[in-house]
Amino acid sequence: MLISAFAFSQWAVLKSGTTYPLISVYFTDANNGYVVGGVGIILKTTDGGTNWIFQTSGTSNYITSVIFPSTNTGYAVGTLGTILKTTNGGTNWITQTSGTINSLYSVYFTDTNTGYAVGDTGTILKTTNGGIYWKSQTSGTINWLNSVYCTDANTAYAVGDTGTILKTTNGGTNWASQTSGTSDWFSSVFFTDTNTGYAVGESGIIIKTTNGGINWKALTITINNYYLFSVYFIDSNTGYAVGQSNTILKTTNGGMNWISQPNETGNLFLSVFFSDVDTGYVVGEPGVILKTTNGGSAFVKENLISESSYKLYPNPSNSTVNIVNNGALQKEMIVSIFNIQGEEVLSKTFNYKNSMDIDVSTLVNGIYMVKIQTEKGLAVKKLVIQ
């Protein structure tokens, strides 16, 4: 499923300035993002991750989850009932009264005022006034709850240990247990619409529902059995899951297949977030932050030559693509096209030509990578078929 000649993915290592675990990442736009983690760490970037600035959280407790329902208003939760709020983009963080000493592992807001936090021994808290008051809700379980996600103002899901999945349809007044079909621990839950959702966790398990949790089906994952800690989808088909042992998985078909994406650092990845369809971030330990600007697509590693040496047009295309060699005439040029799953779908060899036409009319709509191999080296171009 991977391109054998393409040795690594485009996940670049960013400098975080810490070796403490980084547990949660969230971006409000392409440039502004936040990472939280061990000993009260809150980092902020205003330049898409190039630089990270330490913010004053006012706590040494671990901060486990962060979310910004608006550009300047954000919330973070952590151990020993920690809840923090900022209304000025992180310049100041104010401690809120949670009413519990149980550790909180996940926070989700549907707007700047209404949000949920979940944690130890079935703890579920809700606020409707921006955290001035947090009310404890009856979850019906004593299991740890590790993640919460809302699909609208009244509908929310919480997942946790021993296969726990809870759902509310009335804003948390009642929480009903759903059948997950497993006793594995769940670490993260994410919904792409009101009916379609995913949960990931222990032993690399990934389950999916297409009917709002009435039924959950385990997806077949054969890559490894590493614990997965976070799942994130950018649309109905394309999603990512991260976990132990540098694990980054990607699907482009709604979870039917998952592709392992190689990367060069990190021991444990704890959170993944995408600010747009191509730009994503993964955080973990020790102090790891990774970034991709091409959706993690695999590129060639060895002997790359300048992309400007070749031009593809028209791009996007739906019939014929012309490849123009802007450099010296090559004896032989092998052009291979790969789909997003890393499968070669077309290959042609050209001799002594500066301009080549390739028929792509049989390719389905989508994003492809064009590998151009010559005696001088390799070039890779992105091709869109539509």
Report on this model:
The chain has 386 residues and is mainly β. It folds into two domains: 8-297, Methylamine Dehydrogenase, Chain H; 307-385, Immunoglobulin-like, CATH 2.60.40. It contains no helices and 37 strands. The chain has strands at 8-9, 12-14, 22-27, 33-37, 42-45, 53-55, 63-67, 74-78, 83-86, 94-95, 104-109, 115-119, 124-127, 135-137, 145-150, 156-160, 165-168, 176-177, 186-191, 197-201, 206-209, 217-218, 228-233, 239-243, 248-251, 259-260, 268-274, 280-285, 288-292, 298-299, 310-313, 320-325, 332-338, 344-351, 355-359, 366-374, 377-385. The strands form ten sheets. A four-stranded antiparallel β-sheet has the order 2-29-28-27, with no helix packed on it. Strands 3-4-5-6 form a four-stranded antiparallel β-sheet, with no helix packed on it. It has a four-stranded antiparallel β-sheet with strand order 7-8-9-10, with no helix packed on it. A hairpin with a 4-residue loop joins strand 16 and strand 17 (165-168). Mean pLDDT is 88; it is low at 1-8 and 299-304.
Layout of helices and strands:
Layout: E1 8-9, E2 12-14, E3 22-27, E4 33-37, E5 42-45, E6 53-55, E7 63-67, E8 74-78, E9 83-86, E10 94-95, E11 104-109, E12 115-119, E13 124-127, E14 135-137, E15 145-150, E16 156-160, E17 165-168, E18 176-177, E19 186-191, E20 197-201, E21 206-209, E22 217-218, E23 228-233, E24 239-243, E25 248-251, E26 259-260, E27 268-274, E28 280-285, E29 288-292, E30 298-299, E31 310-313, E32 320-325, E33 332-338, E34 344-351, E35 355-359, E36 366-374, E37 377-385
Antiparallel strand pairs: 1-30, 2-29, 3-4, 4-5, 5-6, 7-8, 8-9, 9-10, 11-12, 12-13, 13-14, 15-16, 16-17, 17-18, 19-20, 20-21, 21-22, 23-24, 24-25, 25-26, 27-28, 28-29, 31-32, 32-35, 33-34, 33-36, 36-37
